Amino acid sequence: MPITFGGIVFSSIRALLPRGADPIQERTKHCRYRQALMLSQRHSLDYDEVHAILNVLKRIPCELHNGGMEVTNFTTFLKQIFELKHIPDAISEAAYESSVARQRPLDIDKFFVLYRNVVSVARSHVSREWRQDASATD
Fold first, then answer.
1. 26 and 17 in contact (C-beta within 8 Å)?
2. What is the pLDDT of residue 32?
3. Contact 73, 63 (CB under 8 A)
4. Which of 24, 28, 61, 111 is the most buried (most CB within 10 A)?
5. Does the pLDDT of residue 18 top 80, yes or no?
6. Cβ neighbours of residue 12 under 8 Å, at least 6 residues apart?
7. Who wins on pLDDT, 72 or 29?
8. Three-point CA angle 121, 124, 129, nearest 5°
9. Taking CA 129 as the corner, what is the angle to CA 125 and CA 48, rounded to the nearest 5 degrees?
10. pLDDT tens, 25-37?
11. Which residues have CB under 8 Å from 41's CB, separation 6+?
């Protein structure tokens, strides 16, 4: 079935894609873009931040029979997205439980609520430390 794009008739969708591009991969990229855009708007987060988190998440294995992930994989996921070398066990286990990653595949909406809360607490903590440092130098 011919496709018309910009007044030009193409014999197939492959003609619209870059040379050697796989149509399935291109569709997957588009779906990830739309998911990141939707999640960033829903949770009032930056698109690039959400997209980066989704890319990290897709590389983390979900090895439980119900599609969930082990606590060690979840901790690895947290370390990668927060760019930390160590996360205290109590914090990673609390985040693991609240995201219900053990019972089923990660509930991405619950995770982004948790993420947004953690980021806002961290920002306020850094801001408070910065204000204390600034007042100490005066």
1. yes
2. 73
3. yes
4. 111
5. no
6. 3
7. 72
8. 125
9. 50
10. 555 566 777 888 8
11. none
Q: Which residue type occupies 96? A: Y
Give Rg (Cα) of the chain.
Answer: 21
For residue 64, how many other CB atoms are within 10 A of its CB?
15
Greatest Cα pair distance, the chain, in angstroms, is 73
Mean pLDDT calculated for residue range 106-116: 86
Q: Which residues contact 132 (CB under 8 A, 6 or more apart)?
A: none
Q: Both tokens of residue 90?
A: 């109590």
DSSP-derived letter for residue 42 is: H
- CA-nearest of 57, 48, 65, 31 to 109 is 57
C-alpha–C-alpha distance, residues 66 and 103, integer Å: 7
